[in-house]
């Protein structure tokens, strides 16, 4: 990519072209490289992002702001910004790094982006660096959910599944690509209960798992939204009383047949005796009366 196009995408034209060249130079290329600029740019980036968060989220405390900032300035976040800038096309790498695919390595791209921030600071001051960083991060901040407080995708997926009483996901390495020192990992994420299987790739196993977890979380949320809620069957009142240890009234037993229709059946006689029970009568008196009526019958 042309250097002029990169400066246009950054939103800054360097007055000192040597600073831009140094920021794009990896230590494998020459003795004048970007590591010191990276150190400076890292501090500038943290200051600017902290300022942006302080302005945007007025009700979040210091601990949560720190976690959110850490999530925004980590290597993966910088790597994604560098990819949008197509920074890999401008890197100055040594022959060994070129052959091994160093221009795709997240760590190199993230470090180079920080070096660019440091170079802009030296070239035009803090305000210029702040405007460049702000332009890159404002779109990101618009999609940030402060409720997650900088939690990564694996943590969010785990917490979401636990909240729904669903077993935790499974992660498996499906394949690895590239040389041993520059591998790309393809990771499978499974949520068996919902029959969800998704894949993610990254420059490390952890990065691949994070990418897979992000897709899995989206798939789980979509699946649960589509699934209709199954109404619970109302429990029978009798069953509830039994569980609570409360005696229930059993249905009347069928009356024994009798030749004389005027004679009451035995259960009816028992009910007659109970109905005639005087106030304060004991249970023994009631039993005796029932027995007498049964004999006379």
Brief rundown of the structure:
This protein is mostly helical. It has helices at residues 3-10, 17-23, 35-56, 62-73, 75-85, 95-99, 106-124, 126-142, 153-163, 205-226, 237-243, 266-275, 283-296; strands at 170-177, 184-191, 196-202.
CATH class of the largest domain: Mainly Alpha
How much of the sequence lies in strands comes to 5-15%
Give the overall average pLDDT: 81
Give a count of the beta strands, DSSP E runs of length 2 or more.
Answer: 3
CATH superfamily of the largest domain: Ribonuclease III domain
Shape assignment: globular
Number of helices: 13
Order of helices and strands: HHHHHHHHHEEEHHHH
**Major beta sheet summary:** 3 strands, antiparallel
The CATH architecture term of the largest domain is Orthogonal Bundle
Number of domains: 2
- Proportion of helical residues: 55-70%
| CATH topology title of the largest domain | Ribonuclease iii, N-terminal Endonuclease Domain, Chain A
Report what the structure shows:
With 297 residues, the protein is mainly alpha-helical. The protein contains 13 helices and 3 strands, in the order αααααααααβββαααα. The chain has a 3-stranded antiparallel β-sheet, covered by helices on one side.
